[in-house]
Amino acid sequence: MKGLFANMRQFLRAAASRLGQWLAREYTIRNRLWAAVLVVLLIWAAAMMIETREALPESADEHPAIRIKRLPVADCDLAFSPCTVEIPGGDRLTVDFPERPLKPLNTFTVQATLETEADIRVIQLVLSGADMNMGTILRPLEKDATGHFRGEVVLPVCMSGAMRWRMDLDIGYEEGYIVASFIFSTGQN
């Protein structure tokens, strides 16, 4: 890896030297613009080299890989009833919206309950349109006094009226993440 950075430094020095020679020979406005573009690119390349060097791990022990297990989309519709899915390791996750029906621009609560709650670090809600890009809503779910994880969400309005949503719950354990996915609809007549 050190050879790569040494070669990059040599390249940057040679490019800067040639740029100086070129500017001395051809000093026109057009060449000044090209020179400015080249200088910006050289500065960017140097910054990327330094940033990349900082970001590279020295060993696998310092930056262990994050393991992610994505579960299949649950076969239920949260708009009508709670959903329960099996989590690897024997746990069960139940997700519910205590307020129904769900309406856009109204705050509603997302509630997640795990039977064992074994060493959970975080539960992050990721909400997006299932069939249409409506942006992405990220919310951490906070553990309350009853042991449930809760968070509040406001859905945007879809101009077509009915909208299908995909909700992923990223459950962070000590050894990695499990992603449970759910589909629900709003705006049905």
Any chance you could write out the topology, listing elements then pairs?
Blueprint (H helix, E strand, L loop, with lengths): L1 H24 L3 H27 L12 E3 L12 E5 L3 E6 L10 E8 L5 E10 L6 E8 L5 E6 L8 E11 L2 E11 L3
Parallel strand pairs: 1-9
Antiparallel strand pairs: 2-3, 3-4, 4-7, 5-6, 5-8, 6-7, 8-9
Our measurement of the CA-to-CA distance between the termini, rounded to an integer number of angstroms, reads 61 Å
Largest sheet at a glance?
9 strands, mixed
Oligomer: single chain
**Which stretches of 5+ consecutive residues score pLDDT under 50?**
51-63
- Strand-residue proportion: 35-45%
Reading the helices and strands in chain order gives HHEEEEEEEEE
Percent range for helical residues? 25-40%
Number of helices, where a helix is a run of at least 4 consecutive DSSP H or I residues: 2
What is the CATH domain class of the largest domain?
Mainly Beta
**SSE class:** alpha+beta
- The largest sheet has its strands arranged as 1-9-8-5-6-7-4-3-2
Tell me the Rg in angstroms.
26 Å
Number of domains: 2
Provide the CATH superfamily of the largest domain.
Macroglobulin (MG2) domain
Q: How many strand elements?
A: 9
The gross shape turns out to be elongated
- In CATH, the topology of the largest domain is named Immunoglobulin-like
Mean pLDDT: 78
CATH architecture of the largest domain: Sandwich
